[in-house]
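INTERNAL AUDIT FORM
Audit reference: QA-55
Scope: verify that the stored structure record matches its stored sequence.
Auditor: D.O.
Record contents follow.
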Amino acid sequence: MQRRTFLTLSGISVAGVCSGWTEEGWGFSGETLTETSRQIPIVRQADVVVCGGGPAGVAAALSAARQGKRTVLLESAGCLGGIWTTGALCLLLDYHNKTGIMREIVERLEQLQAKRGDCYDIESMKYLLDTLCAEAGVEVQLYTQVVSVVKDAENRVRAVITESKSGREAVCGKVFIDCTGDGDIGALAGCGFDFGHPEDGRFMPMSLMALLTGLNHEEMKPFYDYKNLLAEMERAGIQPSYRRPSLWFLNEQVWGLMATHQHQLRGTDARDLTTATIRARAELHEMVTKLRNSGGVWKNLRLVSTAGKIGVREGRRIHGEYTVTEKDLREGQKHDDAACRVTYNIDIHVSRPITSGTSAHLQKVPPYDIPIRALIAKDVKGLMMAGRCVSGDFHAHASYRVTGNAVGMGEAVGNYAANQMIHD
């Protein structure tokens, strides 16, 4: 019989309004519900625990596991890939100059005949990421949300607490890597972070992807130019919330569409995420209906699906040992401890609804490095980051946030965790 280890926590408070009833084991005070201590089973003890299974998280887990470290990868969705899969982005960004795991993913997609230009087949990506993790021996657990972080007296992260169909459980580790995109683990650990523009707090909108069918590739070629697509939408009586709508050819049956913006709703708030997703889905249904009713090349248009999760551009930027700045970008800063070379422009999506002009502003910058120091949490020990939640300012984040860089950062941080930080 397997022996179970337990971690005891006490004094857990959750927001809520409860009155008129009592229950043994719970305490009430105003608008706070206090849970008394209980034992939480420790279900895994690993060398490296990666939280978030998107592009950064998969790369971090692969690189750590390939160094022979016991690696656990926790993901809240039902598949790996994050914005690549659950988010249905279907487009690779800033990946051409990348080597290592990013190049490996591209080559494996090509072997599966699942890549066309910069686009890829979403289901093939899911299968590929599962396969890569299985080959490396990564212990993947899906449908699992990290809800708390446990630190020791020396301010070192020792465990994360998860919630899932299996209940509340603990996963212990030597090093933890926050690949949640929104810096959830850093925030739970008490790290300082920045969010939005430092002067006025503005932040970039979210977008919900859609998959379409019923179109003809030859007839669609003019509309791969966003200006033509926007004009066609306006002809059909559509004013898309994203004024730079993008249509991508995935295969002879399926197209990807990005045409929505949800403004001033935070990706770190469940209520805002809900509002943004419902609004964007309604907009996409209306958009497809009006295009189909306009006839011509759109007469057979159908909406196959909307993404299982809305795409979030901006979340917390966890304070690290180094902060990547706009000045670094303008100067093409290089670092001896470079984790990733970025070749993407500053891409800022406007923070408010507009009815004319463009919804995104591109500012060209030379290639620059992200140092490993920007991936090491400043305020706690034993925690690293990869992806868009790393340490940077508003403008720098608008450049390095895309998926090719997330993979590069993830690979670097996994290697560093396995070979150096695990011994610190």
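Auditor finding: record pair retrieved intact. The mean pLDDT is 93.
Action required: none
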